[in-house]
Amino acid sequence: MSTGIKARRWLGRHALHIYGVLAFAYIFTPIAYVMVFSFNQPARSNLTWRGFTLENWTNPCNAPDVCNALGNSLKIGVASTVIATVLGTMVAFALARYRFRGRTTTNLLIFLPMATPEVVLAASLLTLFLNMRVQLGFTTIIIAHVMFSISFVVVAVKARIASLDPRLEQAAQDLYANEFETFRRITLPLVAPGIAGAALLAFSLSFDDFIITNFVSGDVNTFPKFVYVSAGRGIPADAYVIGSAMFLLAMAIVLAAELFRWRRAKNI
Amino acid sequence: MAAIASRPDTAEELPTATGRQLRTVLILLVPGLLWLGIFFVVPLFTLAGTSTQTPSGSGIPGEFVQTFHLSNYWDVISEYKGHFGRSFLYSILATVLCLAIGYPLAYLIAFRAGRARNLLLVLVVAPFFTSFVLRTLAWRQILSDDGWVVSSLKWVHVIPQDMAVTASPLAVVAGITYNFLPFMVLPLYSSLERIDPRLIEAGGDLYGNGFAVLRKVTFPLSMPGVVAGTLLTFIPASGDYVNAALLGNNRTTMVGNVVESRFFRVVDYPTAAALSFILMAIILVLVVLYVRRAGTEELV
Fold first, then answer.
1. How close does chain B come to A2, measured CA to CA in Å?
2. pTM for this one?
3. Are the beta carbons of A117 and B239 closer than 8 angstroms?
4. Which of A83, A228, A267, B161 has the largest CB neighbor count within 10 A?
5. 0.85 surpassed by complex ipTM
6. How do strand B53-55 and strand B64-66 relate by DSSP bridges?
7. Shortest Cα distance from A116 to chain B (angstroms)?
8. How does pLDDT run across B248-261, given as a tens digit for each residue?
9. Which residue of A has its CA nearest to B36?
């Protein structure tokens, strides 16, 4: 009897934690599948387990198309991230710092691309490009990726600026820093983590995008496009290796940043 | 993305830009807004134009003339009402599931995670770092009828013995739910995190049990997150075609699938454009109704 009550109390106290473990297990199951199947014996399709091998990892460009597509995705990702981060950060500063006529319209223009289904964005851009007889390729992909990333950058950077303590900037001005010096030596370094986070977000949005890319890419192959097209006839295990490697790389960056933050927090 | 349910703009506290500041504002805004104007607003007008075109009659596929034919819209609605119905049904189901799965998770991260908060948030978006399409294919393997997941669910009688999961509506909804869960959790987290824990304590001090406090204090205070999360899950879900294409069969296709095939397999731009436009219009109406009813002005 008393053990029953104890067990129920224990469950009551830990139900949420147990739930958390289950939820993260759910989130990570497909990733685990991708990782496990990156070690599968190569064959035409990578759907059933055939046995462990390191071959895919030692030679990930075995199917040359995969690495070609990966290279394109990385190039597009870097270019669109740089443009979207610069443009988005500028807009974020204007919105976070000043009141001006047209502010509401600007906010609406930032919000709407996020509230439009990707397939509509894709179809409308494609009709524009077709009407203007623009050659589809790298340029059109980058244009599209910048378009849908800007909003996310603005929102992320704006939140960071809003969370700054205004007294820090006032202090700098009290110490005779002019506007530009205050911005360069106080404001920008404080906002930098927000900008870095926004850039990481823009990159992952660009790297992962399939729907819009598929519409405006013409002959240029990207990694998600490669995977989607090969889904019918079987995806080489190399694609799983690249998926796993990207995941591990991102996790390593995040963990390093987190460790750095914890150590610094301890030292203060 | 965690900032999507960002705090309401406190525009009243900001200085009104004048003179030199106004020039700064202009310089900061113009490049970004031009990009959105040219590559987001203008294309929507092109899309509207294309949606009222008819084939030129030259016999060349892909050649259309502007005839301002609104009948495209009626044709599309009557022909594809099933697809619209499915798109909205699947996305609503997936959104509700995301809310049910995501709320406790966001609650856990906001109130019980301590120093691990940031780390857990990153783990929520971790799936983004593998590829969306690759993840969906992994789901196809996980949900295959002879896989261990489906077999064990049948064994414990959660799903009936003779049910097919592979290439079924169930698999499509499961895929959408999985893929868009982070879009639900992040806004939920950011609004839960902003709740003063003392309010929840006060609820307990006034003899509210855990459930009563959740229902009367925590949940109402987290409404902005619930609204932002449902929109950010529902909108991309309703336009998605990857899950339906990879996890479903030819009877589970959604509007997105039709748009894609009208563009690329059958060269029929007016139909694709009309479909996209109706999808956007329905979503806009739903969003306005929902935001009005849920009563937050934080968005926009």
1. 23
2. 0.88
3. yes
4. A228
5. yes
6. antiparallel
7. 7
8. 998 899 999 999 99
9. A147
